[in-house]
Every structure is written in structure tokens, then in C-alpha cells.
Amino acid sequence: MIVKNKLHEDVFAWEIEVDDLNIDVENLDYKLQDGKIFKKITSRFENHDQNLKDKILSKLDIDYIKKQIPEHKEISMHIFKDVPGFKLWPHLDKKDHKGFIVINLIDNKNSTEFLDFDEKFLAKSSNKKNKGVFHILWKKPYCLHAIENTSNKNRYTAIAFIK
Amino acid sequence: MAVPASGTLSQLAMAQEALYGTYGSGTVTGPISLYDMVNGGNTNGSGNSYPTINTTCTPNPATRGSLQLTAVRDDMGSDSPITLYYSAGIGDASNLQPGHILYSDSNLTTPYDLTCGLQTGSSATTTICGAGDVAGCIDTNSSGVITSLGSCF
Fold first, then answer.
1. What angle do CA B140, B143, B149 make, to 5 degrees?
2. A90-105 mean pLDDT
3. Which CATH number is A2-19+42-162 given?
């Protein structure tokens, strides 16, 4: 994982890039997300292949994450398919979430956006395949983040929740 | 005993019923405030403190009006914005505390179960926090009772 530029001076988020994962994401088996993270969302589906998740996890720079978020205790990897219409309004994650890494598994139309507490746009992460964002949560100045799929195609991402 | 369904009613006897369940007997110290009898306590100057009645019918009549808690987003803020309602007796939304009840309707009949709800602050009285702050996580149980209000940050 290569950590690149910071997206905005007031946002603790950096563009990242990983080696090509070579995953045929469109032909994986997905099940509706189980509601542990978002209880009402019915437009996000998840693949539960542990080998694939471990493969993606191995691409992350764990030492860098440890340096940036030394208090973290676990990293859980998820592979998501967000169907057209998927939307997470500007939100904060729960306090036990210390950060996250989003990796685009294809060229997606939309990417994570960061907003201030007046919900004014601050920055947007890359939407390109093998690129994404590393965001540290709960570090001042706080900001909100949001994502949606405004395209007519499925959106595929791998997200590492750092707790 | 109960208040008679017909005939002439006595305010003193109703006070006796409210205090002791003995319509027509029992010692009552005046004055007797109808407000206090209905809502409980003696904030309106009654000589006795009346029990809170109708505890299964919240809120009690004096606070039956509702106020809005606007643009609340459930699920850490990821859900679409909704308006919730609470008892008008609480006052501005900034007065909300754990123990208060949130409803999805202005008649305060349907409690709302929030999971880490979030509300962007503003100068309006319908938001918990002021402008530039965000309230969260706001949690309620299945009865709509606020169990955690988080903080403004």
C-alpha cells in the first residue's frame, strides 16, 4: 500500500494505492449485509470469502496503520457490492471505529466524500481501481463522510474497518 | 373506588380519590389544584402533592403537545433525515436528556428506536447542538426512551 497525498488540510484522509488485486469481483457470491454496521441498508451486499479478504488485507501497510492509529486493536476486511441507489448520508462512525481504508475494486463512478459539520463539501477520494482512501476517525477537526452510487452499475469496494 | 360515572361530581371527593382511592372520604389539605390532580405533584400550589396518574399514558396531559427534533439521521447518520417528536414540556431540543422519549409522530403515540442517530446542529430550537456542532450518537430503546445522548462535538 502506497500512501499518497492528504486530501484536504482539515481532513485526516490520504489517497492510497495498492498493487492490482486481480479479483473478478463481478462474479463473486454476495449476500445482503447483515445489519451489524448499517441496520437498515438494503442496497449493500457483502462477499464473505475469507481467503479473498486475507489477500486484500495482506496488501495493506500494517506498520503504517499502527503508526497512525497506535490504539487500534483489530482490522476487519469487507468486500462490498453497492447496487445503484445505494446511499450513506453524511455520517460519523461509532467511537470504536478508529479509521478505515476504502479500496476501489473496479473503476467506480462515486467515491467517499468528506464534509464539514455544516455538511459543506471538503474533499473526495479517488474512484479509480486499486486506489482509495485511508481515513483516521475521531481526530480533530472532525468531519463527516458520505458515499452513494449514482451510476446504473454496481459499485465494488474493499473496506478495512480499523477498530 | 372510582369517580362516579354519573351525578354531581365533587372536586374534594376527586382529590380524595386521587390521593387515597377513596372517593368521598379522606383528609385533603387545600387548595386543590385541578392541574396538580391531573399532572401530579403540587407545582400549581396544592396543599397536597398528588401522585402522577395515568403513568401508562405518557406524556401526561399538561405536556401533551409536541415539539420537533428535525433532520435526525439514524444508523450513525447514514440514513435519510427524519423528523422526530418529543413532549413539548421539555422545551428546546437542547434540553433533551436520557430518559426522555422520542416519537415518530406528532401525537406522541409511536416511539422511535434510534441506533446511533446523528443530528447536525443549528441555531434553531429543533436541534440539540448549536451551529457547527453535531449531536451523536443518540440512542433510544424500543420504547423510544433516550438511553444515550452522546455529546455535541
1. 20
2. 92
3. 2.60.120.620
* Beta strands, E only, A28-74: 31-32, 44-47
So what's the pLDDT on residue B40? 77
Kindly determine whether residue B79 and residue A89, on different chains, have CB atoms separated by under 8 Å. yes
- Contact at CB, A117 and B120, closer than 8 angstroms: yes
Say yes or no: B105 contacts chain A, CB-CB below 8 A.
no
With beta carbons under 8 A apart, name residues in chain A contacting B132: 117-118
pLDDT of residue B53: 60
Average confidence (pLDDT) over A20-40: 88
pLDDT 10s digits, B34-90: 888 877 788 889 999 988 765 445 555 555 689 999 999 998 888 889 999 999 889
Q: The whole model's pTM is what?
A: 0.75
pLDDT tens digits along B95-116: 999 999 999 999 899 999 998 8
Binary contact (A91, B80; C-beta < 8 A):
no
Contacts of B128 in chain A (CB under 8 A): none
Gap between the Cα atoms of B126 and A44, Å rounded: 32
CB < 8 Å to B81, chain A: 89
Count the alpha carbons within 13 Å of A101 in the hemisphere toward its beta carbon: 27
